[in-house]
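User: For my dataset I need records formatted as: sequence, then structure tokens, nothing else. Please produce one.
Assistant:
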Amino acid sequence: MNFRQVEAFRAVMITGSASRAADLLQITQPAISRSILELEKTTGFQLFDRIRGRLVPTAEGQLFFRDVEHTFQGLDRLRVSAARIRDFGTGDIRMASLAAMGSTLVPHALRLFRAQHPSIAVTLQVGASSTVRELVMGSRFDVGLAADEIDVSGLEHQLFATPKAVCAMPVGHRLCERQVITPEDLADEPFIALSPEDTVRHKLEKVFQASSVRPRVIAETPNSSTVCALAMEGLGVGLVNPYAADGYAARGVVFRPFSAAVHFRTLLIFRPDLPKSRIVRDLASCLFEARNARAERLVN
């Protein structure tokens, strides 16, 4: 069995006759008939009944055609993939992001990217920064956004954003009356903390120690968005990445600037085994464009 025989069979099934199949493939009708006979000999069963000069598909031929169509659909996908690689350097793009930006800034950047490259398939995975690093370092993903706590050895990386932490609290909380929250305001306050390994938590603990303040930690979470969700339910207050605050103000969370200079540092990382393709560079540009657009909306 060879591709030419299968192609001739498919052309007859699609067009309904050997003559039209010959026109479709731009070969002679005898060549179509010969390919069909050779294919029937190879498969060991009859593909068509010959009825008054017409080729009528047998039940076996109909069954065989279903699998042939699946094969040709796969070939069509290969052609599309080849065209994408030819035009853009890759057929798809895979991005991983930390949670603080994965549901806010990154979707905006992907909308910008899709406007430029509507035919490029995009995969987005949101998770912990350590997971983002593993996905990119293992060459399974092309681009990642991760907190600066990760080990960047062997990774191409650059600083992406350094937003200042803001204080999240439920509507009606006593601190809502303050325009700026100080470390002293949080003394003995029910506090929703980031995970112990988070670099921002380490910075914040130093700020609290310098101010002789000890908040009352009632919950810990690795994600700023979860801090916002817990604050929305009235469990306490917490310091969050302002990129994760999008949408929570309308849901009952109040945000105030924090007086101490505590910043979230996010890195843009790239897989180490390949030079950046055109679409990877374009996605990076869209991420920076989205960052700049969102910067004006962040809580100051």
